Automatic annotation (TrEMBL):
<dbReference type="Pfam" id="PF00296">
    <property type="entry name" value="Bac_luciferase"/>
</dbReference>
<dbReference type="GO" id="GO:0005829">
    <property type="term" value="C:cytosol"/>
</dbReference>
<protein>
    <submittedName>
        <fullName>LLM class flavin-dependent oxidoreductase</fullName>
    </submittedName>
</protein>
<dbReference type="InterPro" id="IPR011251">
    <property type="entry name" value="Luciferase-like_dom"/>
</dbReference>
<dbReference type="InterPro" id="IPR050766">
    <property type="entry name" value="Bact_Lucif_Oxidored"/>
</dbReference>
<dbReference type="InterPro" id="IPR036661">
    <property type="entry name" value="Luciferase-like_sf"/>
</dbReference>
<feature type="domain" description="Luciferase-like">
    <location>
        <begin position="11"/>
        <end position="178"/>
    </location>
</feature>
<dbReference type="GO" id="GO:0016705">
    <property type="term" value="F:oxidoreductase activity, acting on paired donors, with incorporation or reduction of molecular oxygen"/>
</dbReference>
Amino acid sequence: MSTRSIRSSYENPLHLAEEAAALDLLSDGRVALGVSRGSPEPALRGWETFGYTGSGDPRGADLARAKFDLFLRAVRGEALATADPEQYGPGRKLAVEPHSPGLDRRIWWGAGSRETAEQAGRMGVNLMSSTLLTEATGDAFGDLQAEQIRRYRAAWKEAGHEGSPRVSVSRSVFPVVDQRDRMMFGAGGTDGDQIGVIDGYRSTFGRTYAGAPDELVAQLKNDAAVQAADTLMLTIPSQIGVDLNVHILRNFAEHIAPELGWKPNTEGPVQGEPLG
């Protein structure tokens, strides 16, 4: 499966739709595309450096929403461009090419709040929820995120979309199975959620899970959002190198994932099935 995370306020939506469809066709329908407004960055109104203007929000949220809406319409095959009347006759509209049917069902919106999750449900795209929410109500992070998921699914249903959407949550999980793990991650877990300010919002940050596999299984089964989602994405520190990251993922796959309902799928194009 090919995956990519996109900062929507920096992208030309029609060009992105063209590239995404081409990649999906080349990969035989294996693209999963995550899109979001983007996390806080060091550049001030960085999208303007890329040549995009018109945002009245210092975070570029309004620009990102408008661009994503246009991108989604293009991916779904809507004719958006006016054709040359000398070639096609008057009133003809053209869609972005190439078009990859079904790609829109594999697009995920990275929502950082309950409100943006509801918006994703109304748009009819999958939900990708990370390790933080730009909200702090006093509820545990897992409970707050589980409510976000419930609101998303309710908005999806109310909008009249067919089928069942996909929902992923992200967690930092470090199984401790040998001495190297104990040295690297043995004291790396956090006892609870953290509250801080990000992007000007008082926010809730999820805990880091680190410990023996049986302890982690019990903790993840008690995480309301992990149980509400159908997909668990692992957040791993890429700066520590490929070998150690592979080791972390292998430990999770061997010692944690089966206890959460994961079963390897070696016959299909995507390895593994969602956690249930």
